[in-house]
Amino acid sequence: MTAFKNPLIASLDLVAKASFLICVSLDPPRLPMDRVDMDDRKSVRDQCTTQKCLDQTMGARVTFLDNYSRVEKSKAYAAEEKLRKDEYEAQRQAEELASAQSDEQYRIAQEQFHQQRQLSAQQHQVAQTPSQSVQPAPSSQSPAYVVSAQQVRPAQPVAEKPAVLRMWQAFWAGPAWKYTLLIGSMITCLAIWRHHTEAATIYTDYTDAAITNALPAIGAVSALILRWLEMPGLVSGIALGTGIILAIAYAVYATFRTNQGALSITLVIVAKLTLITVFYAVIGMLIASLFSNSARRKGESQARAAARNSREKKQTMALITGLSVAYTAFTAWVCRRPEFTSFSECLEFDTAPA
């Protein structure tokens, strides 16, 4: 039974040859041994007279070659994966080493800069000290008396911080601001409840709420514009303070205009100031965080730190937008009339509640 007379044998030869070539490509050193084995099996195949003989000679060979190629491919893939992991680990270690070296260089540069500043300050101080060209005449006083006289010399008075500034720092350093916020929140909840029972009025309409909440923002924007124009810091502070004072004054005026009774007036004023203060404080802190990049973490490359800072800034912008929308919706909810009125109508004083 020969390959030229039997199409089954010819097809088996093609399959065996393809498997043989795959195995040789995966493991070239096996070529002589596999070729001898292949020739032996062909000689045995040519003597076969039954299908069973062909299956034992060629079919078993094809199965062996397929299994062998599959195992070799798995080994090659595992070796390639290991090489890729080793390259990634080497690259990561190189980035960490470069990051550590850059941090060390930055620290050394900072130390040199501080040392240079200290040296320059010392040289400047020495240059400012008047040189004495004439030596003083020897004194008849004893050295002990001179030393005691120098020790008795009164110390220079140290300028103390203003009392208002010290009180403000003590307020934020301790738990006082937390208690203030808690009390303000409770009063705000009570004022909102009285507003919806029509016992008090927080905002008359949308115009009233817009004026009260826009005045601090106008003051802050004016202060930033004046600072951008390189005006003195006092002018920017006056602009910001004017916006805040006008907001407080209008809130008090509008509360007296639309509420009756000391309890309602007090609750509404505290509620307005609490809501506006908390909102602008939170928004201010979030805006300030946009201009400050967090430090790189240990083992983090500069590119990853920049990507993380960019992602955090986008999240902060989304949070600012969400809080602004939520506060606007809440402010509209506590308006007595859901409509806009003229500015002159908001300034008309009317003791009757809206």
UniProtKB/TrEMBL annotation:
<feature type="region of interest" description="Disordered">
    <location>
        <begin position="118"/>
        <end position="140"/>
    </location>
</feature>
<feature type="transmembrane region" description="Helical">
    <location>
        <begin position="206"/>
        <end position="226"/>
    </location>
</feature>
<keyword id="KW-1133">Transmembrane helix</keyword>
<keyword id="KW-0472">Membrane</keyword>
<feature type="transmembrane region" description="Helical">
    <location>
        <begin position="316"/>
        <end position="334"/>
    </location>
</feature>
<keyword id="KW-0812">Transmembrane</keyword>
<feature type="transmembrane region" description="Helical">
    <location>
        <begin position="262"/>
        <end position="295"/>
    </location>
</feature>
<feature type="transmembrane region" description="Helical">
    <location>
        <begin position="233"/>
        <end position="256"/>
    </location>
</feature>
<protein>
    <submittedName>
        <fullName>Uncharacterized protein</fullName>
    </submittedName>
</protein>
<feature type="transmembrane region" description="Helical">
    <location>
        <begin position="176"/>
        <end position="194"/>
    </location>
</feature>
